[in-house]
């Protein structure tokens, strides 16, 4: 069965600093991987997704993620964090036509 | 494109009453809709998957008689929490997937249910 691990429950970075949020997955075949962002009391917004092809995926809001099969990872990165990026970030794994499984989430706090 | 709405955005009800939450795909036909539940500071837990015109498939541990799901049209799915209790208080989020793009789920904004 597929599963997702986000090792960091909470991360604090200074505004302007770089960011990396970790995600490890377990899946028997080539997974479909997603990163979503959730602001307090809101639904989920898709940041980016990986299905196949180039392992470096560009998303919205300046985010990118890199799929590393050998490490079963799909870490999210941003070179310079803005205060508005403070939110909860969820990594998810799924397969074509199937439901998704979400990680526990990483809460990002941005210091001025 | 790919907008999903939920109504209501929040609801407070008395214990023992039933509450219906609507999930609509506004600009696409959703052949499949998903219902998730999210407790404070926790991740989303899939409750059930519904395909238009079929009975919903519930995840293990989710009471189908308590959480009634109807997906009667390609743009609307409803979740009814029957005989609600305080422990049903949660954030309920739906998502929708179209036949033309089965790889991605589009999420609604969620419904906050508080049962007194």
Commentary on this structure:
- The complex is a heterodimer of chains A (112) and B (116).
- Chain A has 112 residues and is mainly beta.
- Helices cover 0% and strands 53% of the residues of chain A.
- In chain A, the strands form three sheets. In chain A, strands 2, 5, 6, 10, 11 and 12 form a six-stranded mixed beta sheet that branches. In chain A, strands 3-9-8-7 form a four-stranded antiparallel beta sheet, with no helix packed on it. In chain A, strands 1-4 form a two-stranded antiparallel sheet.
- By secondary structure, chain B is mainly beta.
- Chain B has no helices and eleven strands.
- In chain B, the strands form two sheets. In chain B, strands 2, 4, 5, 6, 9, 10 and 11 form a seven-stranded mixed beta sheet that branches. In chain B, strands 1-3-8-7 form a four-stranded antiparallel beta sheet, with no helix packed on it.
- In chain B, a hairpin with a 2-residue loop joins strand 7 and strand 8 (76-81).
- The chains are: A mainly beta (112), B mainly beta (116).
- Chain A binds chain B through residues 32, 34, 36, 41-46, 49, 51, 90, 96-97, 99-105, 107, and chain B through 4, 6, 34, 41-44, 46, 49, 91, 93, 95, 102-110, 112.
